[in-house]
Amino acid sequence: MINPNGYTYAHEHLHIDLSGFKNNLDCRLDQYQPICDEMRELVSKGVVNIVEVTNRYMGRNPQFLLNLMHDSGINIIASTGYYTDSFYPPKVRTSTAQQLAQTMIDEIETGIDGTELKAGIIAEIGTSEGVITPDEAKVFHAAALTHHATGLAISTHTSFSTMGLQQIDLLKQHGVPLDRVVIGHCDLKEQPDLIVQMIDRGVYVQFDTIGKNSYFPDQRRVAMLLTLAERGLLDRVMLSMDITRRSHLKANGGSGFSYLVDSFVPMLLAAGISHAQVEMMLRHNPNKFFATQGK
Known about the structure:
Layout: E1 7-12, E2 16-17, H1 19-22, E3 28-29, H2 32-44, E4 47-52, H3 62-72, E5 75-80, H4 90-94, H5 97-109, E6 119-127, H6 134-150, E7 154-158, H7 164-173, E8 181-183, H8 192-201, E9 204-207, H9 218-230, E10 237-239, H10 259-271, H11 275-289
């Protein structure tokens, strides 16, 4: 359940382990004390919600998240789902969409891995770069079934900002109301017209890799947001950083979770985005989108 009294980071990871897949220990984000310290700092700056989109087979750790909430005061919205084809275990390939959906429904209604933590978002449901594989399409079907059973919203992963329109088509085909869908990672390519098309279809979009300047510079993210602001579309935009590595943490020399509010928001204000528009993207839009709606 979202806490409406502050800012929300719409797409983050607090415990994730892709180190085996990427053969890089840096991709195991699991250092409790530095992360807890950063969460306390965020709370002090008015960020009260983290949407934690690590799901099955990505290194999700529900007890770690429960401890963080207790020790730092941050509110965490946990996820259920399946990432992208490269990360699927054999069970995903051999299960039906209905079976996958039941697993997700159980994590929403009963709890994750035997803990009291229940998933509050179907995320991050992903597609591969430039293609949607048959098994990914099956997972999107399962996500739609889960949405219909629980009312929870769906947050997606696009690989390098590809296949967003196709994701929308899939979810629409399965009857998901598009105002309950947010398309992730829309800020890794210069594609304002495509983003406008997606918003016009009825979905929300995320600029959620803020600070990852090696992928795409923040100045160009600001420019795209200015374009959306000029068209009156920021009421469909949410912001986040998608921190996934140990090296992203302040304790390890990274910019840390507070970069978004400490550095990126001042960049937006300096470029002409208003304080009210910042409030819209970081507070009002997430409050509306992540609110649990009835079945």
